[in-house]
Specification:
This protein is about 70% helix and about 0% strand. It has helices at about 20-35, 40-45, 50-95.
């Protein structure tokens, strides 16, 4: 069996409102949990309690997800700021006149 080799480079990943998306999903899971609570007995009678607890688990896992994506966004912002600071420092160094005694001796 031959090894698969990509014929083109993979595109950059899409970035979007990740924190807002995860927060919205978490709110949705908790809302579904709260909507199902009044029908707890109905679900229990039919052996379908997993519906209720799946929504609760989705909400709590969403809280972990919010914590994770907020940390990721902060790390990306820090990295971008450091990269911009390094680029600005390099520009200033390139534009600064050479110090006396450091140029070519002639």
């Amino acid at each position: 069996m031959a090894k698969w080799i990509a014929k083109h480079e993979a595109p950059e990943p899409l970035e979007g409102p990740v924190v807002a998306t995860v927060t919205g999903g978490t709110i949705l899971w908790f809302a579904l949990f709260l909507v199902q609570l009044p029908f707890y007995g109905w679900f229990a009678d039919r052996g379908q309690l997993w519906w209720v607890w799946t929504c609760a688990a989705g909400g709590f896992l969403g809280l972990i997800g919010i914590w994770y994506v907020r940390g990721r966004e902060a790390a990306l912002a820090r990295h971008a700021a450091e990269r911009d600071e390094e680029a600005a420092r390099a520009d200033r160094a390139a534009q600064a006149p050479p110090e006396p005694g450091t140029g070519p001796q002639g």
